[in-house]
Each structure stands twice: as C-alpha cells, then as structure tokens.
Specification:
eight-stranded parallel β-barrel, Lyase, Ornithine Decarboxylase, Chain A, domain 1, 2 domains, alpha/beta, single chain, TIM Barrel, globular, 420 residues
Length: 420
C-alpha cells in the first residue's frame, strides 16, 4: 500500500479538547481493549469519519509493544512482527522501538520489512522459486525452508551467497492444539514442515536453525505443551543448532495471557540449549485490540427480520468472519434478542452468504448510522479484495492528541489497477 505519510488530519480541534486520548499505558491496561474500541467509536462519530474505514488507536500499539519488549528484555529472545497479520507500515516507526525486526511469508513481505521496518528480516515460505531465493539473499537475515528437497536445491546458492544469511528448516512436530482445522499446520496431510522421520534421514549440512509454528490465538500453556513435544522429538537436532524460532500464534498482549509462564518457557529452553538464540514472531499479538472497522448503514430491508445493509463486506474486508468462521463484536451491540432491536448485518456484495451476523441494539438503526466492528486491525487490511468492485476501506489512525489522521484512501483507480 502506498501510504500518504503526511496526509492532513480529518478535522482540527483546539488543543486539549479531545476526550479520546487515554493517557498513560497503565490507564489503557485498566479496561483493555474495551476502552480502545469505545474511544475509537466516539472519535469516529465526533469527527464524522468517512466510511468504510479501518481506524486504529496509536496508543494501543505502544501498549502492545511494551509488553512484547518486556518479553525480550527479560529473556534475551527476539520478537518479530509477523507481517502476514499486520503490514500497516505507517506504524512501523512506532513498532521498531519495541521489536527486533519482521517475519515474512515471501519476497514482497520481506522487502517491505527491509525497506520500512529495518532490524532483522526473517522469511519462510512453503516453497521458493529460484529468483525469489536470489532476491531474498540480498535482504534477509534468516531464510527458512519448508522441505529438505528445497534446501538441497538451494543449499549451494545460500552457502555461497556474498551476503551471509542463516538458513533454517521448518519442522512439523505433528502436534498442535488449533481451535479450527483450517488453521492446523500439523493436520494429517499438512504441507508444512519436515517430520522427525524425514529429518533423521536427511542431510542437514549447513542448516543453522529450526522453526516451528503450531499455535493459533493461544496461550503460553499451549506453547509449553508444544515445546515438550519438540524437545522430546528434536532434542538431538536442537543441540546442533544456533537458533530456534517458536513461530507465531502467541496471544501475548491479551489481558488473560500468562506472560510470566512464557518468560519461564523461554528461560528453560535457554538453560537446556545454551547455544540457541530464540525467536518468536507474533502477528495478532501486535495488532489485537488496536483498531476497528467503521461502517455505515446504507439501507434497511425486511425479510422475516430487520436486515441492515452496511458499506462493508465480510468476504472482502474481514474474510476470517467467513473462513474461520466467527462473529465479530459490534460496539454497543449484544446477542440477538438481548436488546430491543435486532438486525442482521449484511454486505453490499452479490454473495448471498456475505453476512456479518445478527445483533441487537438499544435503539433502532437508521440509514446513515455508523456501525463499528471491533478488533479489525489484524488479518483484514492484508487480506482485502475488491470483489464486486466494492470500495476498499480507507486507513486512519487516532493519534495521541485525539485527532484522526487519514493515512490512505482508496478509489476506482485502485480497483482498476489490479486488473488488465
């Protein structure tokens, strides 16, 4: 995305008049993330924010970043931003104060991390083309291969590279606790990683690290159980390595997450394998609780129930709603029937199933009302499509002074530019 870093504010107000700045980080933690979502909804309404728009709270990134930095400071591990979840590079200058670098899922993400974030650049892909490897060797610090055949194919290229890059292999411990099968990288027939049987018969010459990724929105208790399996299966290989990447899926910044346990797990791993440098690459933990998707009611129809058609789409703007699936929280709304007025929230596309969910509200909805969908920073902007030519949401940040800064808007040219 071509962010406009110096775009003007949506609306100016006199200094000190805003009620949307939450002050100290301790104030944010008191009711996180509900206070963040409430502040964003109030600011969007007060400043008449044009919709659709992803609106993020700058202070929330400081809050999340400080927790991740605590993990680094107390363990010596390196925490990377998994750009597959969040690639809003306008916020990279803020995040680089807390994180060691970025993790990429391919060449373009790696290049974005190198150009806009700095620090270490790590990359993993299920398979690389030769030209991709050639370019990645110019910008990456770690390159992780998914199979022994890919490593054998590119080993000489990596080891003879004028710029030193540390090669690794993704392992499949054949154990995961994923909440949804679509996100289970260790499912039967998975394309991800090398199993112990394959590793024991393969040539690891030149490999310096191992990488696993088995978690999805999970706590440190799940990581502890995964690590027990990894140590049991791959102990011999780990003793010969220089680094271990524990992947992503760690909900470190969630208020219920046991950070002390994570710190202990990392320290215990260090004690068992003193040579290992340890990496984590959370994505959702960096951007969870930081933003909303502000929409507008554009029509209300009736077919057995009241249906509000919004200017946002589940399939185009928040695809995990349909893929996982899950029902996102809506600011001020409850389960259907709990409040006086129940509506189904639908999209303006031709897809019959493009429905966000059923919700109840204290007051009846009307055309022009804002409807704010909570927790929409992660796995949204990076997965957007222009299906049906639907309008891509703009991207904005609520700054510390309470003003909304519009950093990117989209239009017809963005839709047309993806086609030929």
């Amino acid at each position: 995305m071509n962010f406009q870093h110096n775009a003007p504010l949506v609306r100016q107000s006199a200094p000190g008049t805003s009620s949307h700045s939450l002050g100290r980080l301790s104030d944010i933690d008191a009711d996180f993330p509900a206070n963040i979502f409430s502040a964003l909804a109030k600011a969007a309404k007060a400043q008449n924010l044009s919709t659709p728009c992803y609106l993020m709270h700058h202070q929330a990134f400081h809050r999340n970043g400080s927790l991740l930095k605590r993990v680094q400071d107390e363990t010596g591990a390196n925490v990377l931003l998994a750009q597959k979840a969040f690639s809003c590079y306008n916020l990279y200058p803020t995040l680089r104060n807390y994180l060691a670098g970025t993790a990429a899922s391919g060449l373009h993400e790696a290049r974005l991390g190198a150009e806009e974030f700095g620090g270490e650049v790590h990359v993993f892909s299920p398979a690389y083309k030769e030209e991709e490897v050639r370019q990645l060797l110019e910008i990456s610090d770690h390159i992780v291969f998914n199979s022994l055949s890919q490593w054998e194919r590119y080993r000489e290229m990596v080891l003879l590279s004028p710029r030193r890059v540390s090669p690794g292999l993704r392992i499949n411990p054949e154990y995961a606790e994923s909440v949804a099968e679509i996100y289970n990288p260790c499912a039967k027939g998975s394309r991800f990683g090398v199993t112990l049987d394959q590793l024991e018969t393969g040539d690891l010459l030149g490999i310096e690290g191992l990488h696993f990724h088995t978690l999805c929105e999970q706590g440190s208790d799940a990581l502890e159980r995964v690590m027990e399996v990894v140590v049991e299966k791959f102990d011999d290989q780990l003793r010969r390595m220089k680094w271990l990447n524990m992947g992503g899926g760690h909900l470190i910044t969630n208020p219920s997450y046991d950070i002390d346990r994570l710190i202990r797990i990392i320290k215990d791993t260090h004690a068992r394998y003193p040579r290992l440098e340890i990496y984590l690459e959370p994505g959702e933990a960096i951007s969870a609780g930081t933003g909303v998707l502000v929409s507008e009611v554009i029509d209300i129809v009736h077919n057995g129930m009241q249906i509000a058609i919004l200017d946002v789409s589940a399939t185009a703007h928040m695809p995990d709603v349909l893929e996982m699936p899950y029902r996102p929280d809506v600011e001020g709304a409850s389960e259907p029937g709990q409040k006086a007025y129940t509506y189904r929230l639908g999209a303006p596309t031709c897809l019959s199933g493009d429905v966000i969910g059923d919700y109840s509200f204290d007051q009846p909805l009307a055309v022009g009302d804002q409807v704010v969908l909570n927790d929409m920073s992660h796995y949204t902007m990076v997965k957007n499509t222009t299906f049906n030519g639907v309008q891509l949401p703009s991207i904005a940040i609520l700054q510390e002074d309470g003003e909304i800064e519009m950093i990117r808007s989209f239009g017809y040219d963005d839709y047309k530019g993806r086609l030929a």
